Amino acid sequence: MPIFWLVCGVACLVGAAFSASADPPWNIIALLYPTLLGLLFIAGGLVYLRATLRGKFEVWAETLDALGLRGDEDALDLGCGRGAVARRPCVRRYACCGSAGGW
Fold it and tell me: What are phi and psi of 74, to 5 degrees?
């Protein structure tokens, strides 16, 4: 999905560059609209990539740290997908005797 956003953004910027290279007089709307749309697409794609690759793990780390886990707890993560959140307490320095499971 973010690749689609980035490709659409680049396509809009290329379209704006072609409209800017046309003979004068230029239509300012025909130049600004694809430029702004392209920048919005690229910004959206970059925000999406940041949120999915790093942002959610930072939020989960803060949330799990705020729980004050001692290391002997058992955790169950329902709907865990690939288990990135369920594994987080297991690899922390305070996990020694607890367990984590997912379903």
Answer: -110, 140
